[in-house]
Design a protein that fits this description.
307 residues, alpha/beta, two-stranded antiparallel sheet
Length: 307
């Protein structure tokens, strides 16, 4: 099936499944999209292999498959009651990230919607987490759900970097703002533009010590940096038709400032970009989104320019 007007909702039994279905159904209702609910549960796969010769084990696998279908059918009830065009499927392949990506490539969805949870340092270190894999690999807008209800008029933050340190053509910023505005129009939302920048004041104490051969004019340089960043942010806002009251620039690291701003404004969705950055043989795609994800109180939508 090839249909850009479908939402692929990835349902994991232990990861806020009701909230994921509710968010995907909410989004499908407001966008007019079909909804494909995909239950991801690979526990039955091992039981059904030829490794086990016991008929009891295979019977257990069949019973588990029946239970999976019943669980999925129960989860689909609210969407079905809303008369959303539904497709239900169970995915029991491993690794889950590869299987989800293959399914997404097969149906070409408008959004991939998935629940997310806190990622421990151990999970990050071994880099097997499905969220991390999809952030770095999924070419479709990836909507990661946190457990909160969407209000009638959601507040949407478009987190941008108009200085284009890693995106000289500004394609990611344009895509972030476009996605935020299109979603806002469909769900009666309100878009705010946010840009964070690293000020020089943090090095001021070291830079202005008297024994330095040259004392850096930190305050002057900081003001100049802030002004130049603001000019580029205002230009982006003007091109998108976003007024001054909805355009914000704050100093500090993005991983700290974006969650703070989202909490302060009671945001419902943060839209961010994933840009490939190469250092030698290592690729670090979407690193800001990865650092921010665990600290956001709301959903996050990750978009990529290669879609």
């Amino acid at each position: 099936m090839k249909d850009a007007d479908v939402i692929l909702a990835v349902i994991e039994p232990g990861l806020i499944p009701q909230e994921v279905v509710a968010r995907a159904a909410w989004l499908a209702e407001r966008t007019g999209c079909k909804l494909n609910l995909l239950l991801v549960d690979a526990d039955v796969t091992a039981l059904a292999t030829d490794f086990y010769v016991s008929s009891e084990t295979r019977t257990l696998a069949d019973n588990l498959r029946t239970a999976q279908r019943e669980i999925l059918d129960d989860l689909a009830a609210p969407a079905r009651a809303a008369n959303i065009d539904l497709a239900l499927d169970v995915l029991d392949e491993r690794p889950a990230g590869d299987a989800i990506l293959a399914r997404a490539l097969d149906i070409n969805p408008r959004f991939v919607v998935k629940g997310t949870e806190y990622h421990s340092d151990a999970r990050r270190a071994i880099f097997v987490d499905t969220d991390w894999f999809l952030i770095r690999s999924c070419p479709y807008p990836l909507w990661l759900v946190k457990p909160h209800e969407m209000p009638a008029e959601p507040l949407i933050i478009a987190a941008v970097d108009p200085t284009h340190g890693e995106d000289k053509s500004a394609s990611v910023d344009r895509l972030i703002v476009e996605q935020a505005q299109v979603i806002a129009a469909e769900v009666d939302g309100d878009v705010h533009l946010l840009h964070t920048y690293q000020a020089l004041r943090g090095i001021g104490a070291e830079a202005t010590k008297t024994f330095k051969p040259i004392r850096l004019p930190v305050e002057e340089l900081s003001e100049r940096i802030a002004r130049e960043h603001r000019e580029k942010l205002d230009a982006l806002a003007a091109s998108a038709g976003i007024d001054e009251n909805h355009t914000h620039q704050l100093p500090g690291a993005a991983r700290d400032v974006i969650p703070y701003f989202a909490r302060d404004r009671k945001a419902d969705l943060v839209v961010m970009g994933a840009v490939a950055r190469w250092s030698g043989k290592r690729s670090a795609i979407g690193s800001t989104a990865e650092r921010v994800l665990d600290h956001l109180p709301c959903d996050i939508l990750i978009v990529r320019p290669d879609h």
